[in-house]
Every structure is written in structure tokens, then in C-alpha cells.
Specification:
Helix content: 25-40%
Number of helices: 11
CATH class of the largest domain: Alpha Beta
CATH architecture of the largest domain: Alpha-Beta Barrel
Largest sheet: 8 strands, parallel, barrel
Structural class: alpha/beta
CATH topology of the largest domain: TIM Barrel
Length: about 400
């Protein structure tokens, strides 16, 4: 008997898709749903995003694998943009998207009119922190609300208790944290002219800052103990994987992984890790503990120091002041293309040598090790190294390895 019951269900796993390649990675590695943006109206212009043809292909691929697709339409559009929104929503509706995520009140009304076959999800940009606001959006036709990141699990549980059961609750569980409230920030607009509320944030919260006295121009004073200034606005990344039992108990229907601008590798690893964590939670009888391999996996992606955000009250370790850099301990050596005649065939991404040991990640599985004691080129000739990206190599192994599996190397 699972520790979950009729009142506490395993949350949906909602994963980012910055382009068609990352969408397929999320689907293959265990997402229940993906969220993506078209070429306009999405909050991540740094991602490749989806043109009409890719949108249709992506939705088809997801649906064939039982995965839902949510399309973000969560920018705050200006007058010159709003006139283009009806046509965009009609295309999203026709493509078969399952939901549209919106924040702006005018956009919300247009979603109901021009994308009637899609669920309406209210974006984190709307800053929902209480049950009255959640109920107001429900009365406007919302099927789901994405709660503000600034809420505790206790507050979320109260929102769940005081809203209709038909209203789904979604919350972020992993990824970068924004220093602003519910990602609504003007720093980028003021400092660079790039509007974060229209998906073009320059991330000035990650920059290094120093203190300068007004009458002493050019003289900079340390704010912290380092001579390089301080990253006073640099929020740590969120990781709620060890606490998914508490997340589920609070009544959260869907956990969201941040990262539409992140790599294919990031999407694959985080999706696989959280899939493993949720499946473990569902199967657990009592006293669930996050599987160790899941925790290890989340340290194999590029990330800042992890925190639990506001879920347990005021954050204790919310920022890193020394730098804004990422922790990067692993890189992808190659991606598996297939298996035949006792050999893995793979496409090289980063140089490696004969004898390299790989940490292999197959979709929806715990990772395992492969060692390239023998290495061949595409013609079957023995080679001492694989120095060129995109070259094909063959590595003998005792069993088949799924197409799309990642062969990873630990940094020296």
C-alpha cells in the first residue's frame, strides 16, 4: 500500500521544452506533461521555441506517448502585440495543445475565446498567494493556477483546502529562482532596455556589484569580504526532490521543473530524476526517503547551490554572494544512436579517449557504467580516441542500450 491515498495523489511531472529536441527528451525520460512557447508571447526568448510546424510535430509526438502539452502565453503584451494574439491562439488550439498558460487579464479572456479546446492555466506571473485570488481565477474559467514561488507548504495546503477540487494547483519544484516577486522584475528593463516581462531578461540579478560613495567616483568598496564585489541579488536554485512527500501532502497537483532555456542534457537528467523520485514515492509503504541515485543525478547537471526556496518559511540559504557561476561536474561525451552486433553506436559530443568510463543514463532508468575498453570508428576500425564532435563511434557492450541514452564523463 502506497503512502499516498485517495486524498494524496502523485503529482504530475511537468517539464520544460525549449525546442523540439528538448521536448522529445522530456517525453522520453518520463514527463507527464511539457510546457513550451511559440515564437511570440512566451517568457523565454533565449530558447529556440516553436514555430508552427514544430508545434504540430511536438504535440503529435507528445500525445502519441501519452504526454500533455501546455503552451505558454504569459508575457504582458503591449498594444502592438495584442492584435496578433488571436491568430496565435487559434493556431495553438488547432494544433491540439492541452492548455494555454496566461497571466495578463486581457490575454486570459482571449484564451477562452480563441483557444476554447485548451485548458486555461494561470501563470506564476499573476502572483497568486491566497485562496481568494485562486477562487477568482477559477470563477473566470481557470482550470489550473500556478502558485507564486513565495509560498510555504502550509500556505499552499490552506489554498488547497479553500478552493474547488476541480481547480488544479501547480508549483515549481526545481530550477532557477528569480530575485523578484513571481518573476515580475524591472531590473533588466531599467539597466539594459530588455523587458523581462516580455521574455527578454538579461539577468542583472546574476551580475557582480560593488559599493561606490557619491562624492568619491571611481572608488569602489567591498560589500562582502571578497575583492571582486558581491552578487547581492544572486538567488540559489530550488530543489524540492527530497521533500516530494510533503509537496504531495500539501495538495499540489503538478510539480514544475524550470528550464526552457536550459540544455537537452539538463531536461533529460532532471526529468529522469524526478520521474524516479515520484515513482519511488508512489510505491513506498511508509517513511519515504529520496533514493540516493536521484540526489546524485541532480548534482550531475549544471546548477547553483540548492535551496528549498520559501517552502519551509523564510529561506535560510537563499543566495550565493561569492559568484553567479554554475557547478558543472559532468559533460556529455556521446549520445547513443542504436545497438547492433554487440556494439553501441553513438554520436560524439565531446572528445574522449580509449578506456574512458561513462556514466550512462537511459530513459526512465537508474544510471549505470560503461567502459570503452575497445573503441571503433564508423567503419569498424580500432581507434585510440574520439576527438571530433558529431563523429560516429562504436563501443562494445554486453547488452542493448536505448537510443537517446547519454554517455557522460565526470570532470577531472
Amino acid at each position: 500500500m502506497s503512502i499516498l491515498n485517495d486524498n494524496i495523489k502523485t503529482p504530475e511531472l511537468l517539464c520544460p521544452a525549449g525546442d523540439i529536441v528538448r521536448l522529445k527528451a522530456a517525453v522520453d525520460y518520463g514527463a507527464d506533461a511539457v510546457y513550451l512557447a511559440g515564437e511570440e508571447f512566451g517568457m523565454r526568448t533565449a530558447a529556440a521555441n516553436f514555430g508552427e510546424a514544430d508545434l504540430i510535430e511536438g504535440i503529435k509526438y507528445a500525445h502519441e506517448n501519452g504526454v500533455k502539452v501546455h503552451v505558454t502565453c504569459n508575457t504582458i503584451p503591449h498594444n502592438d502585440e495584442i492584435s496578433r494574439l488571436p491568430e496565435f491562439l487559434e493556431k495553438v488550439n488547432a494544433a491540439g495543445a492541452d492548455a494555454v498558460i496566461a497571466a495578463d487579464l486581457g490575454t486570459i479572456g482571449m484564451v477562452k475565446k480563441y483557444a476554447p479546446n485548451c485548458e486555461l492555466h494561470i501563470s506564476v506571473q499573476s502572483g497568486i498567494v491566497n485562496y481568494e485570488t485562486a477562487n477568482a481565477f477559477y470563477n473566470m474559467g481557470a482550470d489550473r493556477v500556478v502558485l507564486a514561488r513565495e509560498l510555504s507548504l502550509e500556505e499552499i495546503a490552506e489554498i488547497r483546502a479553500k478552493t474547488p477540487k476541480k481547480l488544479q494547483i501547480e508549483a515549481f519544484a526545481h530550477g532557477a529562482m528569480c530575485v523578484s516577486f513571481s518573476a515580475r522584475c524591472l531590473l533588466s528593463s531599467y539597466m539594459t532596455g530588455r523587458d523581462s516581462n516580455r521574455g527578454d531578461c538579461a539577468q542583472p540579478c546574476r551580475w557582480s556589484y560593488s559599493l561606490m560613495e557619491e562624492k568619491r567616483p571611481g572608488q569602489y568598496f567591498d560589500i562582502t569580504e571578497t575583492e571582486k564585489g558581491t552578487y547581492i541579488l544572486n538567488a540559489n536554485d530550488m530543489c524540492m526532490a527530497p521533500y516530494l512527500d510533503k509537496v504531495a501532502a500539501a495538495g499540489i497537483d503538478s510539480i514544475k521543473i524550470e528550464g526552457r532555456a536550459k540544455s537537452h542534457y539538463y531536461v533529460a537528467v532532471t526529468t529522469n530524476a524526478y520521474r524516479g523520485a515520484l515513482d519511488s514515492l508512489k510505491a513506498c509503504d511508509d517513511n519515504w526517503v529520496l533514493p540516493e541515485w536521484v540526489s546524485e543525478e541532480l548534482n550531475k547537471i549544471s546548477h547553483r547551490t540548492y535551496s528549498t526556496g520559501f517552502y519551509f518559511g523564510r529561506p535560510e540559504n537563499s543566495q550565493t554572494y561569492q559568484n553567479a557561476g554554475y557547478i558543472r561536474d559532468y559533460s556529455v561525451a556521446a549520445i547513443v544512436d542504436g545497438y547492433s552486433d554487440g556494439c553501441i553506436t553513438a554520436t560524439v559530443k565531446n572528445k574522449f579517449l580509449l578506456g574512458q568510463e561513462f556514466d550512462c543514463l537511459e530513459p526512465k532508468k537508474k544510471p549505470f557504467f560503461i567502459k570503452a575498453d575497445r573503441l571503433y570508428n564508423a567503419d569498424g576500425e580500432p581507434i585510440e580516441s574520439a576527438p571530433h564532435p558529431m563523429m560516429t563511434v562504436k563501443i562494445p557492450f554486453e547488452r542493448p542500450v536505448k537510443k537517446g541514452a547519454l554517455l557522460r564523463m565526470k570532470a577531472e
